[in-house]
Amino acid sequence: MNNFEADLHEAHRQISPVVMQCLEEYFAANHNFNLNKEFIAYASKLACSGKMMRAALLLAVTNFSGNKQYRSQARLTAAAIEMFGTGILIHDDIIDQSSTRRSLPSAHYYFASLAKKRGYQDPDQFGISAAICLADLLFFIAEKILAKLKLPSNIGRTLILDSNRELSQLVLAEMEDVRLAAHQKPVSMFEIIEMYLGKTGRYTGRWPLTMGGVLAGLKEQQLNELADIGDQLGLVYQLSDDKLGIYGEEAATGKSSSSDVLSGKKTLYYFYLTKFEGKQKLQLLQIYGNPRASAKQIRWFKHQLLELGISDRVNQQINSEADKLVQLIKQASIASELKNWLINATAFIIKRQR
Question: Superfamily assignment of 3-351 in CATH?
Fold first, then answer.
């Protein structure tokens, strides 16, 4: 285990209890409806089953930037980010019709199963409705955490406004992702990368890094540098995630390795496939985005991406974008310890198995 992985585990150790405590306190202070017990049990398990990469990024900035005055408030902010992230994933799984997340049933699948056991009408729709409500609730709980932070008013206000800006941008980028998946025309490299930067770039990289920078009292130039680093880090993370979405081991990733193919997500695999000229192209495109494709067809599809060199082209792009990220980190005017940590994070992201 390298230093970054150790810090990732440490962030998880620190933030998981905070997330669980915040959820328990919220439900204890509110009306005891029938589903409260299921909501808190599922939300706690899902939120605490992830890597907590965003929390680790935020804590790294506050830990390595000298000003540790607001360390306890940084942990609460990290917990809020993880709750926001969990709500986002619940919505994302509904949109992508994914059945698993973090080795658990996706929220809408979990609540549909609960509805079937209890004999509710239209359990599938109940599952979707309950999952949407739970995700929305997580957003509101996270907002309350940020609003109650014990910080100078200017810092607290900046954190809330930054969160609003990044989440608003995420929604627009998510809608673009939905649009790209829905229409049948080829998409450009520019469209894919811009969507990734607006989506994962912002909320996985830029958001936690700049939030940590605000808490650490960094200067405007340093915050701008962290924003650029975060965008690029999120892009590399998403490209790596796309790779795991096709070639990852489901037992390790905790999510389906066929849903991207079945849903026809417009990834770089799709982009390079549309540029390929060969007899297999039509057959491959007939499988990609076909929700009725068989397991055998999907295995053949993945094998062909390897045989035709499409996977190699994606891997080359991942490495190229990672090199750009490392250069941004090296050129930044941030603490050298934080630079080294972020470079180690980059190496972890491109090699991760989950």
Answer: Farnesyl Diphosphate Synthase (1.10.600.10)
